[in-house]
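Can anyone check this?
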Amino acid sequence: ALETLMNRYVCRLQVAESGEVLFDFGSALRRRDSKTLREHLRTAAELLWKVFTVGFKIWITVMLVLYFVIFVILLLVLMFAGKDEKKGIKLGWLGDLFADIFFLSSRNMMIVHAMDGAGYRHRAFRQEKRSGGGAETKKRLVQSVYDFVFGPPRPNYDPFSNEKEVAAWLRTQDGVLTMTELVALAGWTYDQASERMADYLTRFRGEATITDDGVLIGDFHRMLARGDSDIAGGTVELFWEEYEAPYEVTGNSTGRNAAIIGMNAFNLLFAAVILGSPALRDTVEFLLFDYGYDVSMGALFSVLGIVPLAFSLLFFAVPLLRLLPTRRLEAERRKRNARRRVLRHVFDRKGRPASLHEYLVAVRQEGGKGMRDEQVRGILEELLPRYGGRTDLAEDGTVLYIFDRINREEVAAARERATKRLDPGTANALGEVIFDTGTPSV
């Protein structure tokens, strides 16, 4: 019954002074799969945005490119209206542009690793060639237009990636898991890791045990012995190796953006001129009649004036409305990536005291040359309460940052794994150890 409750409701595991495990369900039961009103609204907003994106992409293909060609042709015809030469103009190639609405979606792009300006290695999309393998080195114009309006697509992460990663970790670490290792795998705080540990104990048929020094250990030997494959193991990638891709407004080069702005500005200007010049509309009407097309003045006013003008204004409005939110998301991403970089060195020290200067040297050697002293100090002070850290003073008065819990739990986990390896029955059941985090310093 307790396992059923832990599987269905959010639960935190705690260790009492007596060495017993406490199961804390909070002041009220909260289902693990329940969503808040804010999450429901976010889901609805994302769905509406997807519908708007597909519809506006179709409109972009028709309006920006097709109207640009139409207006250029009209301009040329107006310039050479006195000539009798009439040449047919083939526009069938425009139909191929519609393929980019769907065929260049994220599902048909390949994921590669790229490096942003701050030196963070992240996953990114590259366009696949329509035939053959490999990736295109240059983005097509129509895809650049879509990115100008909606921003470049970002790689989607598997919502079960953490569970798969934990399953892979357990299979390579003798079925032993601590909350510190959950922190290293997913970047959770210890409070969040406590909730996830309760979830994994029920999901992977584990047992919670307490070591003599008061460390909670998740023992998942039953999953390993049974060869449980309810969730296939993924690739173990520590939290500080999972840098986020940048949020970009367009992701295009300056020249490509200038060309797109120029095309839309030309459409906007030409539509405005048609709306504001009855004489020009009369001229276009007579020219079209001369070419065999009987078009009314009202149709010209709408098709060549109102519609392209409204589209051109909306085309500029969408990226402008995205500008501030994108910059805010990018600033938050940079902060999270900087925290990842500092957290790496917190774990590398395995609880050993270290000064701000030592962290600065380590971070900048890794590539974080743009990180200021105040930024690193702020991150360390933010990490102290989240990861069981504290400060102390050296003999010369230098502030030292100490994360005792990380070292304590790593030592306990190493001891538990060593015990399992010494047990012949356990060793035969689990097989050889193929990956080890190393023995932490005491």
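Reply from J.R.: I decoded it. The longest helix spans residues 297-348.
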